[in-house]
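Q: Protein A?
A:
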Amino acid sequence: MKILYHHRIASKDGQYVHIEEMLKSFRKHGHEVVVVGPSAVEKDDFGSEGGVVSLLKQYIPKFLYEIVEFGYALLVFIKLFKAVKQFKPDFIYERYNIYMPAGIWIKKLFKLQLILEVNSPLFDERSKFDGMSLTWLARWTERYTWNNADHVLPVTQVLAERIKREGVAEKCMTVIPNGIDPGKFYNHMGTDEAKTKLGISGKLVLGFTGFMREWHGLEGVLDLLVGEGNENRFLLLVGDGPAKKNIHKRAQELGIADRVLITGVVDRDKIADYVSAFDIALQPDVVDYASPLKLFEYLALGRAIVAPEKNNILEVLTDREDALLFEPDNKQAFVSAIEELCVNTGLRNKVARNAKKLITTKKFLWDNNASRVIDIVADRSNL
């Protein structure tokens, strides 16, 4: 099939990973794909925050920024119009973004199917964390886009329920969580080899990947490295973030700075080198509707996972079978769960073994996600 892939992601982060992996899987299956989206992001290093877009958001008034966002949809409409005329796609695959009804306008104009991938309810998210100025317009574009797509792909059932409340019929939705590329994670180096390369042989490694925020509670994990009998424990934090400074400071105060490593931003292709060294992989918290990429990477490498017992996590994991889950928003419960896996080798090995099996039994693979999209389009074409 010929696929017109549309997105508005300007930052090279986890969002871009999803785009990159789906594009690769579509093409791997023999489909021809043309992308309409910010081209600058392809040249950026992993971890970049969006260049001009980020600066605009930071320095111009909120209402003006939102007007620019909506105005950008007109420019995208022209780009999509040209792409459809030249490429003649079989369908449009779009990653949802707020203030972006252009894809819907194009699909109506050319009578094309539009499959809409939704990773978050952006009106809710931005209203909570950044505040929205043009709330009526933002809410309208979200409802309009969701309800006029031919099929919506939320990444969790929790998110699907949120979308249903805006009027989207259940039959018009398919939950497709994130996945992994087995070529990047299977047949990787063993745990001992990974530790040796990092100079931490013989350590019991507690690990985390991603952007470190204060609410993750990673400072509390440092206490598990203190005390008699805990000298072989090591904390490996792969990434960066605002919590980094306080973690460093706390580790120095506790006298364990030599058993804490914060790597800073790591290239995507090298993430598995670090996660392979983890004995216990930490998912301290997760947004209620999200499908966290790191979780599937932990699974693929067979790590013993500690995660909050939230509904979106329960869509993937089972407590004491393939992970150890703890009461959400309870930092002490988080630390206690890690401690249990530290001392209970049998449980740690069990959940790690079962974690890796989940990837194949539940087909958490980008290739499978791409195939499901094609099946949805084919089924709709036969209606």
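Q: Protein B?
A:
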Amino acid sequence: MLNRPNAEAIVCVVDDDSDIRDGIKLLLESVGVTCIAFGSTRDFLESEQIGNANCLILDVRLPGAGGLDLQAELTRAQIKTPIIFITAHGDIPMSVRAIKAGAIEFLTKPFREQDLLDAVGVALERDRMQ
């Protein structure tokens, strides 16, 4: 749960749907969390945020490399940023794979805003503990 604003925290969203990106950005900023949005994993990887993000919200299916691919790449690079997956096309094996690889949560679209905020709160707490 996201109990208090954390302006120092940076949450990055990677989703190819601009409405989803913008909605999540507005939601997080409404509770005092800085959010930076990207339309692809490539855009995220080319940014300076790869080492600065305190939480990642990743769509599973993206053009090019998807969210699960990015999770694997970050793991290989020993970057332990907490990850929340969102998807409209998930299945049980996919969610199990994500969670076993360390994801905080696996939410299906449409998800409740409070569920996402709760997951972000858990992710930011995990990041603080690392």
